[in-house]
Amino acid sequence: QVMLAESGGGWVQAGGSLELACEFSGRAFTDYAMGWLRQVPGKEREFVSHIDWSGRYEYYADSVKGRFTISRDNANNRMSLQMNGLKPEDTALYFCAAGVDHGLGPQTQYTSWGQGTQVTVSS
After folding, report:
1. Nearest 5°: CA angle at 37, between 111 and 42?
2. Among 91, 97, 96, CA closest to 119
């Protein structure tokens, strides 16, 4: 059973930076593609970023492209999201997700989720 635990959320002023981390356990990390998604109350969860098992292929939502960078450390079963140039509209609960990597990129079916970490950006 895959277990995911996010950390690194918090409060920041617009233009600031935060780094989110996701610790993975329970299965072989390199079997899994990983993603970040976010949700605000009353809205559907939205895709933010995805990384394949090897770390070679990264995908981003248009709204975060050029500001956010996803990465993974396969030696330590860890994934990160560096968020720069934060905007108030980035305020959300951010979730780490994992799905067996079948080469589908962001179409990967995520089957495991973390509890989420709150990011709040003030104007």
Report:
1. 105
2. 91
For residue 111 the two structure tokens come to 């089957």
- 120 close to 13: Cβ distance less than 8 angstroms: no
Residue 2, CA distances (Å) to 5, 41, 44, 93, 100 in order: 10, 26, 24, 20, 11
Q: What is the pLDDT of residues 29-84, one digit of tens each?
A: 999 999 999 999 999 999 999 999 999 999 999 999 999 999 999 999 999 999 99
Q: How many helices (H) and strands (E) are present in the chain, helices listed first?
A: 0, 11
Determine contact, residues 38/45, Cβ cutoff 8 Å: yes
Q: Which two tokens stand for residue 76?
A: 């330590």
Q: List, in sequence order, every residue forming a beta bridge with 97; answer none if it has no partner.
A: 35, 113
Distance CA 45, CA 93 (A): 9
Give the separation between CA 24 and CA 92, rounded to whole angstroms.
22
